[in-house]
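[job 4471] stage=fold_predict status=RUNNING
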Amino acid sequence: MLKEAVLRTGCLKAVTSVAGTSSLKPEVLAERLMLTIFGYGTNTGIRAVASGGHAHSEDDIRYVRRRYLTPQIAQDIAIAIANATFTARDVELWGEGTTTVASDSTHVRAYDQNIFTEWHSRYGGRGILIYWHIERGSMVVRSQTLRASASECTR
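[job 4471] inference complete, writing structure tokens
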């Protein structure tokens, strides 16, 4: 799905190096960026993604992460994909989608080794809270993690 979104939106074409110059071919950069985004987005990690059946090493992917994928660029890519989704979807089926709402947080169990894992008395277990900002119940616009001890009424 990530590759299809990138191909349809062209959201990686505007990505430039933090240093200003780039020696990578655009298609190689796009592949490495997609591997990096996939590794972080699925919580798989760069090492596991690098062990896949492709020509990119772990060092290559980490280099692209350091040099090209800043938090601002990641947010710009997410915005471009969300905007393309809103543009392409069928209004008859999904509606206008002009307002956003926030749902209650969701408790997700996580391993003890995860630095964000905490005990939550309400849910009776260890994990993290994810607070979803959704657009009329049809698409997640943004998500953020909260401390298990955080008040859910503050956002």
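[job 4471] summary: The chain has two domains: 2-88, 93-146.
[job 4471] exit 0
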